[in-house]
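Progress narrative, work stream C.
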Amino acid sequence: MQKNYQVLLVSQFTLYGFLKGNKPDFHVAMAPQRAKPFYASLVDRFRNAYNPDALKDGVFGAKMKVSLVNDGPVTMQLDSQSPKNTIDAAES
């Protein structure tokens, strides 16, 4: 935020795909009816917390060709699932 970097938000359900035989299987991805409002709320939260002019987003469900130069310090993948508490299990 201090450097006013641009942010590109793209919904990428295919990250949850895996091959089942020779076909992709996306059954572990969030259903589109839930995913679209979830993605929209994430975009809104970024717009409210950051410079809206620095935020770009994709079109949910559209086929997009995205190119960028990653000049920022980090690329993050956000997961909608709660992380499992592995520290407690390891200490038990």
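Work stream C, second folded protein:
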Amino acid sequence: MATRIALKHKESGIVKDGYYGFSWTTFFFGFFPALFRGDYITFIGGFVVSVIIGIMTLGIGAFFIGLVWSFMYNKYYTRKLLERGYVLAGSDADNTMAASALGIAIPATAS
């Protein structure tokens, strides 16, 4: 199950939600959660690859792609936000747990 963590952009102050853990929305709706989060390149790339593999394997391959991607997408999305200048903005305990799950160093200050 996905866990939400608040992220705040260092310069603009924009606050977004990041997630880590299994993505049930990705499991049920495929690559559409990426589209709704504004992650257009991931949506297009994943959708195209999934359709091609699905056609080649009569849908079975697309199911497995969706299953694997459900485990990976939340972490991928949140790490992309962190690379674009967002910082963890939750409580100290939440930030520590999120940093551990995301495989990043615990930030010194995340105000």
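Helices lie at 24-29, 32-36, 40-56, 60-83, 92-102. No further action is required on this item.
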